[in-house]
């Protein structure tokens, strides 16, 4: 498996587990920890954890909302405002989670570089 | 370099954490909010309504059946278990609303919204809401049985709060980023205060004082007579009052202060009102009495009402509850049914207080300096330090406006005397009504009810119908409390109260029905002082005329009447206008609209445009007639619609008809033409901006979420007819907030609907599923289960065990 696949899978699974105990920033924690152990290079440092969490949040949000006919998502998509489209809200959710994880991934990588150079 | 990169990445991470974890203005903390594990996605589900749950503190098992409308049917073995489960279930479906409404009543909204709500909170505090609620709680707690019921209810609510974790907090907490707190019996008292403030928290004394000073006594009486020329009061005209032995308080000597008053408290929104009626079995299709009730309150989501069946082996009641209060408020049991309308009476008065100096520590009373007291109100503000307000209390009540708050100059002030401050145990009335079996028990139950005064309609399986106007009323001298009074004169104080048994009431009247619609309680023959403080003058006559129009009535008649859009107000004025107005100066376009209106059948149906033309014309005409009242910096209230129409028709050449800003001398006929032309022009503007002015579009009835009608959680532009003076009193944001019809078969057969839904969760299909049928005038047959073993109509069952 490539480093990217390993990082992606590890971030995804770690976030899945941490989410049970931690608030929303569990996804940032997952990305930092993974970055410390599974090193990536270049832009992948950001986009691999981004994609992992994007996928996790999109999938889970979709599962929950789909089971309830998107009743609340349609309303929240008016509130935010996203034109009342629940799918847009799901994508925005994924993006927010992904963004937080991606940036945390960069930080994790920088931490690792700092420690290693000591 | 690597340190810089590390530092930058750290900053970026900290920034994104902060940015997504923090609430910015009205934007929720977006990371928290959208996280599928704990954010709003977790609210995309229905509450658990089956299985077996353990509820701490129960003494015996309690069975809860839910029907297809998510109405819980509670079968408990004793009262304390029943109220514990009522608290628990209400919290399960309506927690955020329960807490928010009581925070509102307590002036604690700044804790949630920050200093934008400070002015609102200070108003709530300064008018003595918490003070009154604390006094009420004290009295309720003296009643040991009730006190333990309140504690059980609170424990039930708290059991639900303790079950909550971050993930399943109601969505509004996530949106506003705060947490629920412990429920206490004080909150029940605050909820009742919320109702008292809405229903008995208005008056016009200070505005009347200004009007009296400006226009003089004779003109004032013409504008604001104690009684309208025709009254069709709540208690029938032919009632014999000879049983009343306590005389009215005599009028004292002394002058009334005629101050110029610039600032007054805002009155509750107009449109609040209600209908109820009960028809004797002699005049119904089946021989059973039938009762109906539709309180016209704010149309909110979640609704003010939550429907429940509450039963123990001793009694079995059903109907609309108020989240936060115990028992059923408007409903029925196996033996009786009851429903309320607001009995508007002047129970708020104002006293001019002369303080000794600017410390406000002493004020003049009966020739000496009497000490005032100070109540410190601590208002917590989100994100800021606590605001400390100090309110001066006199023997009459709090000084609402002083140099600390709104008052620009001088330290003499006005003290507010209000029945809402008297305390009282209104909660007990409702609990007793839930258990009452007949007229005498109903009568007994009412005695505890103090404020807000209500017209309690009653019907029983025994065949009795009755209506008591119940509240605690000061026995006022004629004219007392219509204007500002002298706070230093002991004779201006309330001298006593009308003995409860002398409150106006009627049992099985000759005419075979009782009814009320916020009109005059009595005619002038009632021995105590009652004056017209903005009584409704149309719905009551439509209702009474209907029951005088034929011999017998059935359920469909009741439904039709509750949904009746007939506009008596327009019908009393327009034919007169058509007869007297000179339409020759109208343009072709104006004439077309004028002729259109002439064809109107006087029904405010939602698809018609005539109700819009009338509404716009009436608004212009009313404003033009009372242009004398638009005085900068002086608080004034304009006369009632009824009196305005009466004067337009009978005193068309009165000086009041003149438009001040024109050199000509106008009379009523001129006002008709000018206001019509203004209306046509404003309607043209409206149409340009908003499209067709059908009554639906123009009125724009909406059912708004409690957070100021948050669009995402509200329903707008509902296709419903009626207006404030039709029986179907749907205005922009008030209307038949709970429509109920009960036929006193044994057991009773009942129908009900309200514009909302049983769940407070916007993510539930039960959040707003009653709105559509309500708009269409449909009802649900209420499933009145006679035992917990009945299975028909039950969707799920939940068992609560100790």
Descriptive key words:
heterodimer; A: 118 residues; mainly alpha; 5 helices; B: 802 residues; alpha+beta; Penicillin Amidohydrolase, domain 1; eleven-stranded mixed beta sheet; seven-stranded antiparallel beta sheet; 22 helices; 27 strands
Task: Write a structural description.
The complex is a heterodimer of chains A (118) and B (802). Chain A has 118 residues and is mostly helical. Chain A has one domain (3-116). In chain A, 80% of the residues lie in helices and 0% in strands. In chain A, helix 1 (3-21) packs antiparallel against helix 2. Chain B has 22 helices and 27 strands. In chain B, 52% of the residues are buried. The model of chain B has no long low-confidence stretch (mean pLDDT 94). An eleven-stranded mixed β-sheet of chain B has the order 1-27-2-3-7-8-9-10-17-18-20, covered by helices on one side. With 802 residues, chain B is an alpha+beta fold. The longest helix of chain B has 27 residues, at 79-105. Among the domains of chain B are: 2-198, Orthogonal Bundle (Penicillin Amidohydrolase, domain 1), CATH 1.10.439; 568-602 and 609-693. At the A-B interface, helix 2, helix 3, helix 4 and helix 5 of A face helix 1 and helix 2 of B.
Strand order of the largest sheet of chain B: 1-27-2-3-7-8-9-10-17-18-20
Could you tell me the strand content of chain A as a percent range?
Answer: under 5%
**Number of helical segments of chain A?**
5
Sheet bearing the most strands of chain B, described?
11 strands, mixed
Q: Quickly name the level 1 CATH class of the domain at 2-198 in chain B.
A: Mainly Alpha
Q: What oligomeric assembly is this protein in? A: heterodimer
CATH superfamily of the domain at 2-198 in chain B: Penicillin Amidohydrolase, domain 1
User: Approximately how much helix is present in the residues of chain B?
Assistant: 25-40%
Ends apart, CA distance between termini of chain A: 29 Å
Compute the CA-based radius of gyration of chain A.
Answer: 16 Å
Largest interface in this structure: A-B, 41 and 41 residues
Helix/strand-derived category of chain A reads mainly alpha
Major sheet attributes of chain A: none
Shape of chain A: elongated
The count of DSSP E runs of length 2 or more, i.e. the number of strands of chain A, is 0
Let me know the average pLDDT of chain B. 94
Distance between the termini of chain B: 65 Å
């Amino acid at each position: 498996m490539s480093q990217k696949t390993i990082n992606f899978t590890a971030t995804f699974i770690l976030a899945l587990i941490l989410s049970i105990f931690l608030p929303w920033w569990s996804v940032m924690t997952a990305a930092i920890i993974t970055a410390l152990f599974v090193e990536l290079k270049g832009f992948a440092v950001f986009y691999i954890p981004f994609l992992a969490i994007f996928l996790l949040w999109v999938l889970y949000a979709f599962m929950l909302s789909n089971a309830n006919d998107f009743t609340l998502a349609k309303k929240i998509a008016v509130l935010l405002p996203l034109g009342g489209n629940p799918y847009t809200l799901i994508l925005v959710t994924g993006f927010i989670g992904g963004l937080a994880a991606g940036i945390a991934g960069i930080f994790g990588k920088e931490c690792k570089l700092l420690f290693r150079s000591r | 370099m690597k340190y810089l990169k590390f530092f930058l990445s750290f900053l970026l991470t900290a920034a994104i954490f902060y940015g997504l974890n923090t609430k910015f203005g009205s934007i929720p903390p977006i990371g928290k909010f959208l996280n599928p594990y704990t954010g709003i996605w977790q609210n995309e589900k229905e509450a658990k309504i089956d299985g077996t749950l353990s509820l701490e503190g129960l003494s015996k098992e309690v069975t809860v059946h839910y029907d297809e409308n998510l109405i819980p049917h509670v079968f408990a073995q004793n009262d304390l278990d029943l109220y514990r489960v009522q608290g628990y279930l209400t919290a399960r479906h309506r927690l955020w609303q329960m807490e928010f409404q009581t925070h509102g009543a307590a002036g604690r909204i700044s804790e949630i919204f920050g200093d934008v709500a400070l002015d609102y909170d200070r108003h709530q505090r300064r008018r003595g809401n918490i003070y009154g609620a604390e006094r009420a709680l004290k009295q309720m707690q003296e009643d040991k049985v009730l006190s333990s019921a309140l504690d059980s209810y609170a424990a039930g609510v708290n059991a639900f709060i303790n079950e909550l974790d971050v993930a399943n907090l109601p969505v509004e907490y996530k949106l506003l980023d705060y947490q629920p707190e412990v429920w206490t019996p004080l909150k029940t008292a605050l909820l009742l205060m919320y109702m008292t403030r809405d229903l008995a928290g208005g008056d016009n004394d200070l505005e009347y004082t200004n009007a009296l000073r400006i226009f003089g006594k004779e003109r004032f009486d013409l504008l604001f007579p104690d009684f309208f020329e025709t009254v069709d009061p709540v208690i029938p005209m032919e009632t014999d009052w000879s049983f009343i032995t306590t005389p009215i308080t005599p009028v004292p000597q002394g002058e009334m202060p005629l101050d110029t008053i610039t600032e007054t408290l805002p009155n509750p929104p107009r449109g609040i009102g209600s209908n109820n009626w009960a028809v004797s079995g002699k005049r119904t299709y089946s021989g059973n009495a039938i009762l109906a009730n539709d309180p016209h309150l704010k149309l909110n989501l979640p609704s003010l009402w939550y429907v429940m069946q509450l039963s123990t082996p001793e009694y079995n009641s059903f109907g609309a509850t108020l989240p936060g209060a115990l028992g059923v408020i408007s409903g029925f049991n196996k033996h009786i049914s009851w429903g309320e309308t607001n009995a508007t009476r002047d129970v708020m008065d104002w006293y001019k207080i002369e303080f000794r100096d600017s410390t406000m520590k002493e004020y003049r009373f009966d020739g000496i300096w009497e000490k005032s007291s100070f109540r410190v109100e601590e208002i917590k503000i989100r994100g800021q330090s606590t605001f400390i307000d100090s309110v001066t209390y006199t023997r009459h009540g709090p000084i609402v406006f002083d140099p600390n708050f709104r008052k620009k100059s001088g330290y003499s002030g006005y003290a507010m005397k209000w029945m809402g401050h008297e305390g009282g145990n209104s909660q007990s009335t409702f609990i007793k009504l839930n258990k009452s079996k007949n007229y005498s028990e109903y009568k007994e139950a009412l005695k505890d009810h103090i404020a807000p005064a209500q017209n309690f309609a009653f019907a029983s399986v025994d065949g009795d119908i009755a209506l008591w106007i119940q509240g605690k009323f000061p026995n006022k001298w004629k004219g007392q409390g219509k204007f500002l009074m002298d706070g230093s004169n002991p004779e201006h104080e309330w001298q006593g109260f009308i003995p409860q048994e002398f409150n106006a009431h009627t049992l099985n009247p000759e005419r075979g029905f009782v009814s009320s619609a916020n009109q005059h309680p009595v005619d002038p023959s009632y021995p105590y002082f009652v004056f017209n403080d903005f009584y409704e003058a149309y719905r009551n006559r439509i209702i009474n005329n209907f029951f005088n129009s034929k011999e017998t009535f059935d359920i469909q008649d009741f439904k039709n009447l509750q949904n009746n859009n007939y506009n008596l107000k327009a019908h009393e004025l327009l034919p007169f206008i058509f007869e007297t107005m000179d339409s020759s100066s109208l343009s072709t376009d104006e004439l077309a609209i004028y002729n259109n209106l002439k064809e109107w059948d006087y029904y405010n149906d939602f698809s018609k445009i005539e109700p819009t033309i009338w509404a716009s014309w009436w608004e212009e005409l009313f404003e033009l007639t009372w242009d004398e009242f638009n005085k900068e910096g002086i608080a004034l209230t304009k006369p009632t619609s009824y009196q305005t129409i009466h004067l337009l028709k009978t005193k068309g050449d009165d000086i009041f008809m003149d438009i001040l800003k024109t050199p000509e001398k106008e009379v009523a006929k001129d006002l008709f033409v000018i206001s019509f032309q203004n209306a046509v022009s404003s309607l043209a503007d409206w149409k340009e901006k908003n499209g067709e002015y059908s009554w639906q579009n123009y009125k724009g009835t909406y059912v708004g979420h409690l957070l100021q009608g948050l669009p995402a959680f509200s329903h707008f532009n509902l296709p419903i007819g009626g207006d404030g003076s039709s029986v179907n009193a749907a205005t922009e944001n008030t209307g038949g907030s709970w429509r109920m019809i009960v036929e006193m078969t044994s057991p009773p057969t009942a129908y009900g609907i309200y514009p909302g839904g049983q769940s407070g969760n916007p993510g539930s299909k039960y959040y707003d599923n009653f709105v559509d049928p309500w708009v269409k005038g449909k009802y649900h047959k209420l499933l009145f289960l006679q035992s917990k073993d009945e299975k028909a109509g039950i969707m799920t069952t939940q068992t609560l065990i100790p």
